[in-house]
Amino acid sequence: MPTKSAKNLRARRALGTAIKRMRGQKGLSQEALASACGLHRTYVGGIERGERNVSIDNIERISIALGCTVAELLTEER
Amino acid sequence: MPTKSAKNLRARRALGTAIKRMRGQKGLSQEALASACGLHRTYVGGIERGERNVSIDNIERISIALGCTVAELLTEER
Lengths: 78, 78
Fold this sequence. Notes:
Chain A is mainly alpha-helical. The first copy, chain A, has a single domain (about 10-75), classed as Orthogonal Bundle (434 Repressor (Amino-terminal Domain)). Chain A contains four helices and no strands. Chain A has helices spanning about 10-25, 30-35, 40-50, 55-65. In chain A, helix 2 packs across helix 3. The longest helix of chain A has 15 residues, at about 10-25. At the A-B interface, helix 1 and helix 4 of A face helix 1 and helix 4 of B.
């Protein structure tokens, strides 16, 4: 059942790439972004590398800190 | 710190509404959608009501089962 396997999932990687790119555009360090959304720097690093199965609430917190929409962080996933 | 409070987060509610609407358009029951993405029916119900802080992997599984993109499930959140 390929749709149930985590191996076939790529949204979290696309999300991480988008967050890293937007953070760079804003000139924010991982630490500054993490602080702005109440998360730990190493957790934000893990999200950017696609290692974390981040929740919708934390995706929204990051989008607010980056000044973009949740959808903008997820538009490249296919 | 308003951006850190769950009270100010609305993406999960918008996500639930979008999933419910798309599921209806596909003529799928909650049970059929849940089965297609390897989740439990009551969990899908909780997601649709905005009660669950669903993860990116499960959002992607649902989007695959609904035949849409993750971004399409999250475009109404602002």
